[in-house]
Specification:
Blueprint (H helix, E strand, L loop, with lengths): L1 H15 L3 E5 L5 H8 L6 E4 L4 H10 L6 E4 L27 H9 L5 E3 L8 H11 L7 E8 L5 H11 L5 E7 L8 H14 L2 E5 L2 H7 L4 E5 L26 E4 L4 E4 H4 L28 H24 L5 H23 L8 H9 L2
Parallel strand pairs: 1-2, 1-8, 2-3, 3-4, 4-5, 5-6, 6-7, 7-8
Antiparallel strand pairs: 9-10
Helix pairs in contact: 5-6, 6-7, 8-11
Bound molecules: zinc ion.
Zinc ion binds next to loops.
Length: 365
Protein backbone atom coordinates (compact mmCIF):
# COMPACT_ATOMS: atom_id res chain seq x y z
CA UNK A 1 0.00 0.00 0.00
CA UNK A 2 2.85 2.34 0.83
CA UNK A 3 4.50 1.67 -2.54
CA UNK A 4 1.19 2.35 -4.28
CA UNK A 5 0.75 5.65 -2.46
CA UNK A 6 4.29 6.71 -3.27
CA UNK A 7 3.74 5.82 -6.91
CA UNK A 8 0.55 7.86 -7.00
CA UNK A 9 2.27 10.81 -5.51
CA UNK A 10 5.07 10.68 -8.02
CA UNK A 11 2.95 11.59 -11.02
CA UNK A 12 2.01 15.16 -10.11
CA UNK A 13 5.42 15.68 -8.59
CA UNK A 14 7.18 14.56 -11.75
CA UNK A 15 5.04 16.85 -13.87
CA UNK A 16 5.67 19.88 -11.63
CA UNK A 17 9.29 19.30 -10.68
CA UNK A 18 11.88 21.85 -11.74
CA UNK A 19 9.43 24.07 -13.55
CA UNK A 20 8.35 27.66 -13.15
CA UNK A 21 4.85 27.78 -14.60
CA UNK A 22 3.02 30.81 -15.91
CA UNK A 23 -0.25 31.31 -14.03
CA UNK A 24 -2.90 32.66 -16.41
CA UNK A 25 -6.66 33.13 -16.41
CA UNK A 26 -9.17 32.86 -19.24
CA UNK A 27 -9.11 36.67 -19.51
CA UNK A 28 -5.38 36.73 -20.30
CA UNK A 29 -3.58 36.22 -23.62
CA UNK A 30 -3.37 32.46 -23.11
CA UNK A 31 -2.13 31.75 -26.65
CA UNK A 32 0.86 34.06 -26.18
CA UNK A 33 1.52 32.70 -22.69
CA UNK A 34 1.43 29.13 -24.04
CA UNK A 35 3.92 29.95 -26.79
CA UNK A 36 6.44 31.11 -24.17
CA UNK A 37 5.65 28.42 -21.59
CA UNK A 38 5.84 25.36 -23.88
CA UNK A 39 9.31 24.37 -22.65
CA UNK A 40 10.75 21.64 -20.39
CA UNK A 41 11.19 24.22 -17.59
CA UNK A 42 7.74 25.78 -17.69
CA UNK A 43 4.05 25.21 -18.43
CA UNK A 44 0.69 26.85 -17.76
CA UNK A 45 -1.45 26.82 -14.65
CA UNK A 46 -4.84 28.01 -15.82
CA UNK A 47 -6.41 29.65 -12.80
CA UNK A 48 -10.08 29.78 -13.66
CA UNK A 49 -13.38 28.04 -13.09
CA UNK A 50 -13.81 27.77 -16.85
CA UNK A 51 -10.32 26.44 -17.56
CA UNK A 52 -11.58 23.13 -18.96
CA UNK A 53 -12.78 24.54 -22.28
CA UNK A 54 -9.34 25.99 -22.99
CA UNK A 55 -7.42 22.76 -22.66
CA UNK A 56 -8.31 20.89 -25.84
CA UNK A 57 -7.37 23.75 -28.19
CA UNK A 58 -4.04 24.17 -26.37
CA UNK A 59 -3.31 20.45 -26.44
CA UNK A 60 -4.07 20.42 -30.18
CA UNK A 61 -1.44 23.09 -30.79
CA UNK A 62 1.05 21.72 -28.25
CA UNK A 63 0.39 17.97 -28.01
CA UNK A 64 3.33 17.18 -25.75
CA UNK A 65 5.51 20.23 -25.20
CA UNK A 66 3.08 22.19 -23.03
CA UNK A 67 2.35 20.98 -19.51
CA UNK A 68 -1.06 22.23 -18.37
CA UNK A 69 -2.41 22.36 -14.84
CA UNK A 70 -5.80 23.76 -13.87
CA UNK A 71 -6.72 25.47 -10.63
CA UNK A 72 -10.37 26.38 -9.88
CA UNK A 73 -9.01 28.86 -7.29
CA UNK A 74 -11.77 27.95 -4.86
CA UNK A 75 -9.73 29.41 -1.98
CA UNK A 76 -10.29 32.89 -3.40
CA UNK A 77 -14.02 32.86 -2.62
CA UNK A 78 -14.51 30.05 -0.10
CA UNK A 79 -13.19 29.82 3.44
CA UNK A 80 -12.68 26.18 4.46
CA UNK A 81 -14.25 24.79 7.63
CA UNK A 82 -13.46 21.59 9.51
CA UNK A 83 -16.75 20.07 8.35
CA UNK A 84 -16.51 21.25 4.77
CA UNK A 85 -12.88 21.79 3.75
CA UNK A 86 -13.60 21.64 0.01
CA UNK A 87 -16.29 23.55 -1.86
CA UNK A 88 -17.92 20.83 -3.94
CA UNK A 89 -20.74 21.58 -6.34
CA UNK A 90 -24.22 20.25 -5.90
CA UNK A 91 -26.73 20.11 -8.72
CA UNK A 92 -30.23 21.25 -7.70
CA UNK A 93 -31.20 19.39 -4.53
CA UNK A 94 -29.05 16.32 -5.13
CA UNK A 95 -26.29 15.47 -2.67
CA UNK A 96 -22.95 17.17 -2.98
CA UNK A 97 -20.59 15.60 -5.52
CA UNK A 98 -17.82 13.50 -3.94
CA UNK A 99 -14.28 14.86 -4.19
CA UNK A 100 -13.24 11.83 -6.26
CA UNK A 101 -16.09 12.44 -8.72
CA UNK A 102 -15.21 16.11 -8.93
CA UNK A 103 -11.53 15.42 -9.65
CA UNK A 104 -12.34 12.73 -12.23
CA UNK A 105 -14.66 15.20 -13.99
CA UNK A 106 -11.96 17.88 -13.92
CA UNK A 107 -9.30 15.56 -15.32
CA UNK A 108 -11.61 14.44 -18.14
CA UNK A 109 -10.75 17.70 -19.90
CA UNK A 110 -7.27 16.40 -20.67
CA UNK A 111 -5.01 18.59 -18.55
CA UNK A 112 -1.87 17.03 -17.10
CA UNK A 113 -2.64 18.08 -13.53
CA UNK A 114 -5.74 19.33 -11.72
CA UNK A 115 -5.87 21.27 -8.45
CA UNK A 116 -8.52 20.43 -5.85
CA UNK A 117 -11.37 22.78 -4.83
CA UNK A 118 -9.90 23.49 -1.39
CA UNK A 119 -11.08 26.49 0.59
CA UNK A 120 -8.63 28.86 2.22
CA UNK A 121 -7.11 28.00 5.55
CA UNK A 122 -7.15 30.13 8.70
CA UNK A 123 -5.66 27.74 11.25
CA UNK A 124 -4.07 24.34 11.74
CA UNK A 125 -7.32 22.50 12.51
CA UNK A 126 -8.75 23.51 9.15
CA UNK A 127 -5.45 22.66 7.47
CA UNK A 128 -5.67 19.16 8.95
CA UNK A 129 -9.23 18.82 7.64
CA UNK A 130 -8.18 19.85 4.13
CA UNK A 131 -5.27 17.41 4.06
CA UNK A 132 -7.50 14.63 5.39
CA UNK A 133 -10.14 15.27 2.76
CA UNK A 134 -7.56 15.41 -0.06
CA UNK A 135 -6.02 12.13 1.02
CA UNK A 136 -9.22 10.34 -0.05
CA UNK A 137 -8.57 11.22 -3.68
CA UNK A 138 -7.29 8.32 -5.75
CA UNK A 139 -6.23 10.08 -8.95
CA UNK A 140 -2.45 10.32 -9.27
CA UNK A 141 -2.19 13.67 -11.02
CA UNK A 142 -3.87 15.98 -8.56
CA UNK A 143 -2.52 18.81 -6.43
CA UNK A 144 -3.79 20.15 -3.13
CA UNK A 145 -3.70 23.96 -3.10
CA UNK A 146 -3.13 25.22 0.44
CA UNK A 147 -3.95 28.92 0.64
CA UNK A 148 -2.91 30.27 4.01
CA UNK A 149 -1.99 33.61 5.55
CA UNK A 150 1.71 34.39 5.99
CA UNK A 151 1.13 34.17 9.75
CA UNK A 152 1.11 30.34 9.57
CA UNK A 153 4.68 30.42 8.22
CA UNK A 154 6.00 32.44 11.15
CA UNK A 155 8.37 30.83 13.63
CA UNK A 156 5.61 30.27 16.19
CA UNK A 157 3.46 28.25 13.82
CA UNK A 158 5.67 26.88 11.06
CA UNK A 159 6.65 23.58 12.70
CA UNK A 160 3.00 22.58 13.01
CA UNK A 161 2.31 23.75 9.46
CA UNK A 162 5.13 21.55 8.18
CA UNK A 163 3.97 18.58 10.28
CA UNK A 164 0.43 18.85 8.93
CA UNK A 165 1.57 19.20 5.32
CA UNK A 166 3.67 16.06 5.84
CA UNK A 167 0.41 14.13 6.21
CA UNK A 168 -0.57 14.91 2.62
CA UNK A 169 -0.17 12.07 0.14
CA UNK A 170 -0.64 14.57 -2.69
CA UNK A 171 1.63 17.33 -3.87
CA UNK A 172 0.90 20.62 -2.11
CA UNK A 173 0.78 23.98 -3.92
CA UNK A 174 1.24 26.70 -1.33
CA UNK A 175 -0.54 30.03 -1.89
CA UNK A 176 0.49 32.67 0.63
CA UNK A 177 -2.41 35.11 0.94
CA UNK A 178 -2.54 38.69 2.12
CA UNK A 179 -2.44 42.32 1.07
CA UNK A 180 0.77 43.65 -0.48
CA UNK A 181 3.91 41.51 -0.24
CA UNK A 182 3.84 38.87 2.53
CA UNK A 183 7.55 38.10 2.04
CA UNK A 184 8.54 41.58 3.11
CA UNK A 185 8.38 40.14 6.62
CA UNK A 186 11.63 38.21 7.34
CA UNK A 187 9.78 35.87 9.70
CA UNK A 188 7.41 34.83 6.88
CA UNK A 189 10.30 34.55 4.40
CA UNK A 190 12.30 32.33 6.76
CA UNK A 191 9.19 30.22 7.27
CA UNK A 192 8.73 29.77 3.54
CA UNK A 193 12.30 28.55 3.22
CA UNK A 194 11.71 26.12 6.07
CA UNK A 195 8.54 24.72 4.50
CA UNK A 196 10.20 24.43 1.07
CA UNK A 197 13.14 22.57 2.56
CA UNK A 198 10.97 20.23 4.59
CA UNK A 199 8.11 19.48 2.21
CA UNK A 200 9.18 20.20 -1.39
CA UNK A 201 6.21 22.49 -1.86
CA UNK A 202 5.18 24.13 -5.12
CA UNK A 203 4.80 27.89 -4.59
CA UNK A 204 1.80 29.09 -6.57
CA UNK A 205 0.60 32.54 -7.78
CA UNK A 206 3.60 34.55 -6.85
CA UNK A 207 6.47 36.55 -8.36
CA UNK A 208 10.20 36.05 -7.77
CA UNK A 209 9.39 34.25 -4.54
CA UNK A 210 8.98 31.21 -6.81
CA UNK A 211 12.75 31.26 -7.34
CA UNK A 212 13.28 31.44 -3.59
CA UNK A 213 11.14 28.33 -3.02
CA UNK A 214 13.02 26.41 -5.73
CA UNK A 215 16.44 27.49 -4.46
CA UNK A 216 15.55 26.18 -1.00
CA UNK A 217 14.34 22.73 -1.98
CA UNK A 218 10.86 23.48 -3.31
CA UNK A 219 9.57 21.48 -6.24
CA UNK A 220 8.68 24.40 -8.49
CA UNK A 221 6.43 27.41 -8.66
CA UNK A 222 4.18 29.62 -10.74
CA UNK A 223 4.50 33.31 -11.56
CA UNK A 224 1.42 35.29 -12.54
CA UNK A 225 0.96 36.54 -16.10
CA UNK A 226 -0.67 39.66 -14.66
CA UNK A 227 -0.52 41.39 -11.27
CA UNK A 228 -3.76 39.78 -10.11
CA UNK A 229 -2.14 36.33 -10.31
CA UNK A 230 1.06 37.37 -8.56
CA UNK A 231 -0.80 38.02 -5.33
CA UNK A 232 -3.69 36.24 -3.69
CA UNK A 233 -6.02 38.56 -1.82
CA UNK A 234 -9.05 36.37 -1.12
CA UNK A 235 -12.57 37.38 -0.29
CA UNK A 236 -14.79 39.95 -1.89
CA UNK A 237 -12.84 43.07 -1.09
CA UNK A 238 -10.64 44.26 -3.96
CA UNK A 239 -6.90 44.30 -3.40
CA UNK A 240 -5.79 47.53 -1.77
CA UNK A 241 -3.46 49.88 -3.54
CA UNK A 242 -1.02 52.27 -1.98
CA UNK A 243 -2.09 55.06 -4.30
CA UNK A 244 -5.34 56.97 -4.45
CA UNK A 245 -6.44 57.05 -7.20
CA UNK A 246 -4.83 53.69 -8.05
CA UNK A 247 -1.92 53.66 -10.50
CA UNK A 248 -3.31 52.02 -13.65
CA UNK A 249 -0.13 52.21 -15.71
CA UNK A 250 1.23 48.82 -16.89
CA UNK A 251 3.46 46.89 -14.50
CA UNK A 252 6.71 46.13 -16.28
CA UNK A 253 9.75 44.07 -15.41
CA UNK A 254 12.88 46.21 -15.43
CA UNK A 255 15.43 43.48 -16.23
CA UNK A 256 18.58 45.07 -14.80
CA UNK A 257 17.03 45.36 -11.33
CA UNK A 258 14.79 42.30 -11.63
CA UNK A 259 11.85 44.32 -10.43
CA UNK A 260 8.21 44.66 -11.47
CA UNK A 261 7.23 48.34 -11.38
CA UNK A 262 4.45 50.57 -12.65
CA UNK A 263 5.66 52.50 -15.69
CA UNK A 264 4.34 55.69 -14.04
CA UNK A 265 6.85 55.04 -11.23
CA UNK A 266 9.89 54.43 -13.43
CA UNK A 267 9.17 57.10 -16.04
CA UNK A 268 10.62 59.98 -13.91
CA UNK A 269 13.81 57.97 -13.25
CA UNK A 270 14.85 58.20 -16.88
CA UNK A 271 14.08 61.84 -17.64
CA UNK A 272 17.75 62.85 -17.66
CA UNK A 273 19.37 59.72 -19.02
CA UNK A 274 19.05 57.14 -21.79
CA UNK A 275 15.63 55.47 -21.90
CA UNK A 276 15.32 51.89 -20.61
CA UNK A 277 14.98 50.03 -23.90
CA UNK A 278 14.20 46.33 -23.80
CA UNK A 279 17.21 44.58 -25.34
CA UNK A 280 16.16 41.02 -24.55
CA UNK A 281 16.49 38.93 -27.74
CA UNK A 282 13.11 38.14 -29.26
CA UNK A 283 11.26 40.53 -26.92
CA UNK A 284 9.55 43.85 -27.50
CA UNK A 285 12.41 46.34 -27.98
CA UNK A 286 10.22 48.99 -26.35
CA UNK A 287 11.06 51.90 -24.10
CA UNK A 288 9.80 50.39 -20.85
CA UNK A 289 9.15 53.79 -19.28
CA UNK A 290 6.69 54.66 -22.05
CA UNK A 291 4.05 51.98 -21.76
CA UNK A 292 0.67 53.56 -21.13
CA UNK A 293 -2.69 52.59 -19.64
CA UNK A 294 -4.15 51.08 -22.80
CA UNK A 295 -4.90 47.44 -23.65
CA UNK A 296 -2.10 46.99 -26.21
CA UNK A 297 0.54 48.31 -23.78
CA UNK A 298 -0.76 46.20 -20.89
CA UNK A 299 -0.56 43.15 -23.18
CA UNK A 300 2.99 44.06 -24.24
CA UNK A 301 4.00 44.48 -20.60
CA UNK A 302 2.69 41.02 -19.62
CA UNK A 303 4.48 39.35 -22.54
CA UNK A 304 7.68 41.28 -21.87
CA UNK A 305 7.59 40.31 -18.20
CA UNK A 306 7.37 36.56 -18.81
CA UNK A 307 9.97 36.68 -21.58
CA UNK A 308 12.35 38.36 -19.15
CA UNK A 309 11.95 36.18 -16.05
CA UNK A 310 11.94 32.93 -18.02
CA UNK A 311 15.73 32.99 -18.70
CA UNK A 312 16.39 33.62 -14.99
CA UNK A 313 14.22 30.61 -14.11
CA UNK A 314 16.03 28.46 -16.68
CA UNK A 315 19.45 29.44 -15.39
CA UNK A 316 18.42 28.76 -11.79
CA UNK A 317 16.99 25.36 -12.72
CA UNK A 318 20.15 24.48 -14.66
CA UNK A 319 22.12 24.64 -11.38
CA UNK A 320 22.50 21.47 -9.31
CA UNK A 321 19.87 21.55 -6.50
CA UNK A 322 22.52 21.85 -3.80
CA UNK A 323 23.95 24.97 -5.46
CA UNK A 324 20.71 26.82 -6.23
CA UNK A 325 20.47 28.82 -2.98
CA UNK A 326 24.06 29.93 -3.43
CA UNK A 327 23.43 30.87 -7.07
CA UNK A 328 20.29 32.87 -6.23
CA UNK A 329 22.03 34.74 -3.43
CA UNK A 330 24.88 35.72 -5.76
CA UNK A 331 22.34 36.75 -8.36
CA UNK A 332 20.68 39.06 -5.81
CA UNK A 333 24.04 40.58 -4.89
CA UNK A 334 24.43 41.45 -8.59
CA UNK A 335 20.92 42.94 -8.65
CA UNK A 336 21.81 45.04 -5.60
CA UNK A 337 24.91 46.33 -7.43
CA UNK A 338 22.73 47.12 -10.44
CA UNK A 339 20.50 49.25 -8.21
CA UNK A 340 23.53 51.28 -7.15
CA UNK A 341 24.56 51.69 -10.81
CA UNK A 342 21.01 52.75 -11.73
CA UNK A 343 20.97 55.38 -8.94
CA UNK A 344 24.29 56.78 -10.19
CA UNK A 345 23.18 56.82 -13.82
CA UNK A 346 19.82 58.46 -13.21
CA UNK A 347 20.76 60.67 -10.28
CA UNK A 348 17.64 59.39 -8.51
CA UNK A 349 18.91 58.39 -5.08
CA UNK A 350 15.49 57.27 -3.83
CA UNK A 351 15.36 54.15 -6.05
CA UNK A 352 15.25 51.22 -3.66
CA UNK A 353 15.21 47.47 -3.97
CA UNK A 354 11.82 45.72 -3.74
CA UNK A 355 10.88 44.94 -0.15
CA UNK A 356 10.90 41.17 -0.52
CA UNK A 357 14.10 41.11 -2.61
CA UNK A 358 15.80 43.13 0.13
CA UNK A 359 14.47 40.69 2.73
CA UNK A 360 15.74 37.61 0.86
CA UNK A 361 19.12 39.27 0.35
CA UNK A 362 19.40 40.18 4.04
CA UNK A 363 18.60 36.61 5.08
CA UNK A 364 21.63 35.37 3.14
CA UNK A 365 21.67 31.97 1.52
ZN1 LIG B 1 10.62 43.42 -23.90
Amino acid sequence: MTAYSELQRTDARTALRDRVFVAVSADDAIGTAASIAATPNSGLVIVDKVASRLIRPLKTIYPSSLTIATDPATYMHYRATIDRPMDLPRILDSPEMSLNEYMDAQLASGQDIAFMPAGRVRDHDVLKAIVGSANDVAAPNVVLPVALPGRLLKARYVAETVATLAESRHQVALVVTGQFDPFKDPDVSEGLRGVAEAREIFLHRTDFAAFEAIAHGGLGGSIGWCTRLRHAVPGFKPAETRKDPPDRSPVVLVPEIDSLRHTAVIEPWFRNTAPPLCVTPGCCGRNLAWLRDKPADHADACTHNVRNWMPVAETLLAQPPSYRAHWLHNYRIDVDLNYAALRRRTGVMTIEMDDSQATWLSLGR
